[in-house]
């Protein structure tokens, strides 16, 4: 019987297999950041262990870093200690680090792909659940805890039980205004935040094949929000074109050998998935969340559902609690929800294409009075590219704030936070209670919806914007 | 890791589903560089409410958390496990755990027990009616037993794969176990294709 993409990559990394035990898998790339690594390095020290493969390990600073005044000492002493700890650990053990101020610094899941380190058929891990992002390249990529970070540092392997596989097949054409973000939010609403649990998802079908690498990353990024360990997309010409010429992509004969292998990384026709979901791309629409988990979402043109309409008691309770926290009522039109803040950024939607599409909507328009809009590029490279294209001027011209690269308001570990009761439209991936700041209320949206929302001051899609552009003087 | 064989303690019934790791330990706590001192951050936002179940006087000293489905979703932060342990929890019962959270908990000796929701419902009822009820989580027998003062009982078997159980019962260090396979790791490394990416030249 044939094998799925995930099974092929898995099999190619088995170091040891024994009856009744988890497989021991080799890890090709280990990404580190300041938050989940300090206790792992401590463990190495306590046991007198070294980093086994420095050449497969790389670190950057992202979660804690400020997005303003980055040349000044970090104001928050606790954040500063954590960043200094990463710097010391990397220096002591010899790990390559891109600290704040470095041109390769940025959100770990933006940095790996742009350096060309994320490649098809590799295993990628990081102490961060959105490591699933790298699956867009046909890599088997998943988030791990700090004990596992220590395990990979010491052994370059992980003992893992083989997950099941689920196909998410999306056929057809995405309507105009419908983005990868809308697609994945709709998938999560459909299968639920636990629906992918125990599975590796493979996104496939004609609608997926037509997507750019950046859009594919947006989709794989949010696999974890459906509870899945990882999400994958089979590598194809789009993938190879993205990789070619990047810093760490193979060259010459090595490139040819790599591509030959990468072409084998497709689910065989006779392979069987443990579960399958089918989605008609043409039926999708701009999608936003109204609740406090990423599964609580609906098309922008609809209304907040009535919790009483849920059959499952715990879902009903969760919806009631979510509406109470969000300060919303059943039946309210989603378009009527006013926001205070708009955040464009994160490892979900902080890449250059995301900034381009937000900028194209803001161009010649203004952020609504009373709305604060933050644009935070996913990495320094993305920021430089945006500046080269003049996008920063479009954002500041519209009244948005153009910030330095990092995780920023995605999780509010740095000073970029929502105040209690404040409401945001955010291109990030989690709308959990307090995620963007204590008491903050988050609506997850695409970059296009974020930009349109900033202009109108309420949740909106670009189609709602017909006459808000100031004519350019000739 | 501390071994886990069997534990008996009082329970905290937490009637919430989808308790994500941002609720278990909010992000601003993640700046600490140690594995301890997270107890005050556990469920920080909810604990501001004096009526929150963890704040109730009758729950002080309880060590078994009985939670709703999809416990531990979201972030990979192991700090969520440390916070529960620092607070004094030894075991968490739910009908469904997020994968990464479950892996993290078992690596730290926090036993996560999966029971059907109807059993969790009965445990909630029993421990809400009788806060002093003793709940035993017995890994050797793979069984949860709860008994109230009025003689009401809940007994349920649970599953845990044999390998994870063995490591927990013996408190084994995963890294030490893996390093016994040094020869296999070295052999795998020697056979890796040369086109695989490297972060630095060696
Ligand atoms: S941008 Fe957000 S989701 Fe991505 S790594 Fe940073 S905090 Fe995590």
Overview of the structural elements:
The complex is a heterodimer of chains A (474) and B (202). Chain A is an alpha/beta fold and 474 residues long. Chain A has 16 helices and 19 strands. In chain A, the strands form five sheets. Chain A has a five-stranded parallel beta sheet, with helices on both faces. A five-stranded parallel beta sheet of chain A has the order 17-16-15-18-19. In chain A, a hairpin with a 7-residue loop joins strand 13 and strand 14. In chain A, helix 2 (38-46) crosses helix 5, helix 6 runs parallel beside helix 8 (213-221) and helix 13 (352-362) packs parallel to helix 16. The longest helix of chain A is centred in the first third of the chain and has 17 residues, at 77-93. The relative contact order of chain A is 0.13. The mean pLDDT of chain A is 96. Chain B has eight helices and eight strands; from the N terminus they run E-E-H-H-E-H-E-H-E-H-E-E-E-H-H-H. Classes of the chains: A alpha/beta (474), B alpha/beta (202). Chains A and B meet through helix 2, helix 3, helix 5, helix 10 and helix 11 of A and helix 4, helix 7 and helix 8 of B. The structure holds iron/sulfur cluster.
């Amino acid at each position: 019987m044939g094998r799925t993409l995930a099974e092929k990559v898995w099999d190619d990394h088995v170091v040891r297999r024994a009856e009744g035990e988890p497989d021991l898998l080799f890890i090709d790339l280990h990404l580190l950041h300041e938050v989940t690594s300090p206790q792992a390095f401590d463990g190495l020290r306590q046991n007198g262990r070294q980093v086994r493969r420095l050449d497969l390990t790389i670190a950057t600073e992202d979660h804690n870093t400020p997005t303003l005044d980055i040349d000044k000492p970090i104001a928050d002493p606790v954040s500063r200690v954590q960043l200094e700890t990463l710097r010391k650990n990397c220096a002591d053990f010899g790990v390559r680090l891109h600290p704040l101020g470095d041109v390769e610094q940025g959100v770990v899941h933006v940095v790996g792909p742009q350096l060309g380190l994320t490649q098809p058929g590799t295993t990628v891990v990081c102490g961060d659940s959105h490591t699933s992002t790298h699956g867009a390249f046909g890599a088997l990529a998943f988030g791990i805890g700090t004990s596992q970070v220590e395990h990979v540092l010491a052994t370059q392997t992980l003992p893992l039980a083989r997950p099941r596989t689920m196909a998410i097949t999306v056929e057809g054409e995405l309507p105009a205004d419908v983005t990868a973000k809308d697609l994945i939010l709709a998938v999560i609403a459909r299968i639920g935040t636990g629906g992918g649990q125990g599975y590796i998802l493979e996104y496939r079908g004609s609608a997926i094949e037509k997507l750019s690498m950046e859009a594919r990353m947006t989709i794989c990024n949010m696999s974890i929000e459906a509870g899945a360990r990882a999400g994958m997309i089979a590598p194809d010409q789009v993938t190879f074109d993205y990789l070619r010429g990047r810093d760490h992509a193979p060259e010459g004969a090595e490139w040819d050998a790599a591509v030959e292998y990468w072409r084998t990384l497709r689910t065989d026709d006779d392979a069987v998935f443990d579960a399958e979901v089918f989605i008609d791309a043409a039926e999708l629409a701009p999608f936003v969340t109204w609740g406090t988990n990423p599964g609580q979402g609906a098309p922008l043109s609809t209304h907040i559902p009535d919790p009483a309409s849920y059959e499952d008691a715990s879902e009903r309770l969760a919806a009631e609690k979510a509406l109470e926290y969000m300060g919303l009522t059943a039946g309210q039109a989603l378009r009527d929800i006013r926001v205070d803040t708009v955040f464009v950024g994160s490892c979900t939607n902080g890449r250059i294409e995301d900034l381009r599409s937000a900028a194209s909507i803001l161009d010649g328009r203004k952020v609504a009075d009373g709305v604060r809009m933050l644009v935070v590029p996913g990495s320094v490279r993305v920021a430089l590219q945006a500046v080269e294209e003049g996008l920063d001027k479009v954002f500041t011209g519209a009244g948005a704030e153009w910030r330095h690269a990092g995780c920023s308001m995605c999780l509010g570990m740095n000073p970029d936070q929502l105040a209690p009761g404040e409401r945001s439209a955010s291109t990030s991936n989690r709308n959990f209670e307090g995620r963007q700041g204590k008491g903050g209320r988050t609506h997850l949206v695409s970059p296009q919806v974020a930009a349109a929302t900033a202009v109108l001051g309420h949740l909106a899609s670009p189609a709602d914007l017909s006459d808000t552009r100031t004519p350019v003087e000739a | 890791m501390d071994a886990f064989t069997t534990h008996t303690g009082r329970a905290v019934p937490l009637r919430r589903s989808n308790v994500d790791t941002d609720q278990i330990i909010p992000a601003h706590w993640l700046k600490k560089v140690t594995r301890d001192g997270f107890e005050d951050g556990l469920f920080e936002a909810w604990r501001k409410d004096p009526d929150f179940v963890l704040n109730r006087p009758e729950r002080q000293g309880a060590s078994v958390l009985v939670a709703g489905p999809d416990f531990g979703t979201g972030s990979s932060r192991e700090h969520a496990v440390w916070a529960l342990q620092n607070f004094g929890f030894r075991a968490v019962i739910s009908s469904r755990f997020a994968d990464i959270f479950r892996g993290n908990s078992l690596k730290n000796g926090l036993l996560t027990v999966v029971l059907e929701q109807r059993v969790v419902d009965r445990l909630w009822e029993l421990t809400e009616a009788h806060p002093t009820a003793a709940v035993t989580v017995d890994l050797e027998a793979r069984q949860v037993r709860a008994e109230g003062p009025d003689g009401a009982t809940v007994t349920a078997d649970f599953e845990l794969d044999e390998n994870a159980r063995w490591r927990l019962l013996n408190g084994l260090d995963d890294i030490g176990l893996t390093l016994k396979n040094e020869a296999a790791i070295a052999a795998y490394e020697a056979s890796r294709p040369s086109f695989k990416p490297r972060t630095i030249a060696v």
